[in-house]
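INFO batch 0412 | record 1 of 1 | parsing
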Amino acid sequence: MSSMSRGMRCSLVVATSVLVAGAVAAPALAIPEGPPYPSPEWGEREAGNFAKTQEAAAEQQDPAFQERWRSQGIANFQSFVQRQIDDPAWRTTGNLCETWGEQCTGDPFYYPGTDPFYDDVGEVVEVAFYDDGGARLSGRVWKPRSAGPGAALPGVVMINGSVQAPETLYWWFARDLVSNGYVVLTFDPRGQGRSDNQTPDGQQGSNANPDVFATNLIDAIDFFRSTPTSPFPNADRGAAATTDFNPFWEAIDPDRLGAVGHSLGATGVSVVQGIQPWPGVCCTDNPIDAIVAWDNLALATSLAGHDMTPRVPAMGQSGDYFLTPSPFTEPPDPDGKRQGFLAFEAAEVPAFQVNIQGGTHYEWSLIPSFPATAWDPGGPGGWGNPLARHYSLAWLDRWLKEADEPGYADADARLLDDAGWVERMSFYYRGSRNYPDRTGAQHVCSDIRAGCTDTPTPNPAPVPPPPAAQPAQAPSLPSTGGGAAAVGLLALAAAGIAGRGPRRR
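INFO prediction complete | emitting tokens
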């Protein structure tokens, strides 16, 4: 194991040692299938399920992968050194992933020069902008090459997980979004990847200051919405080289914005979607219209002084195992991964939850050599990541696409394609949905894998935003979402949650 790998794994072990404890209900089978517990057959099934966590590392032993990974890591190191020569004001020294080398490379087949996407499909431009504390953030904006001025495409801002997870680990979904008609911003939060580790006055980022996963998301959305006539306030925050407005501003419809986050970034999108009025500079009303939270929707969580308040359509995704996977010795609580979903459902805000059978925390951050189900690097195969792609894109298409755009007409069909994807869903944890399709029919299912027998309630009238709900008591079970668990710093006490309907659609 390399020193890089040891460092990251050490951080993860420390993170898992500070999980917030909470009362859970007595274990019960989530699905009426499979062998009884306890029995040798139950143990055999669990052994096979846990073995899926080693699929990615096994396939990455392929010599072609190893060579591509090695050569891309060297190229990334060289580009980092050149950037520091060209602009020594970057404050990244000591960041584990500052070079985007070793595990921080991500899937090495998703880089310019190797992936034809960059020549044929997407245009990508590097950007830099200041956060609210004066740290410079490094990022990229992505758009379809076919999208010219006035394209008015929906936009998505993505935010990474913590414990050193650079933007490279998430380029797989940025590519998918651009290929399906979105403009995208990816970036490294303060303290991670190629962004500054700290502000000029010493304020930290990443796990030392988890609030940046809310405040930096707000800054990133403000930058994404910036234009030549409404530039980002870089000049008020520092003097180093920055990008004053989104170079792809003319291709964006400012009224359609999604936010996607992983781990502590998932906590960030869970919290920021509910802040009203908007605390940034781009607008008065919160511009987020839908979110996807990868491992997982947060529950009763606060960041940067803001509580998690359900407001816009939200999808949570999780897996059977977490940061440092270990086999189950008894059935886990079947509702353990859908507490955030239940909070949105209680607030009468559209919600969806899917859980990957045999999946780990790394189904969404493609980290070479880390435990995860099969990737099929650079190809169409794999296990958990394709499920994540399918549902993430369908959810955003459902809430962000317009009638004349690809992905609009079949978004509901993809979300309701249980037969096509149920075999990859957890047989331990319940996947659920409660949302209206485009006809206004409400689809309510508490256990997708067990079978959805409830009949959608027809509603031929257009679907208005749900009225503001009275504060509802949040479920008492703690969230197992990646962000809060990874740092062990965020209170998960049950709290009253006041619901807000989505702004639009």
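INFO post-check: Residues 62 and 155 are 36 Å apart (CA to CA).
INFO record closed
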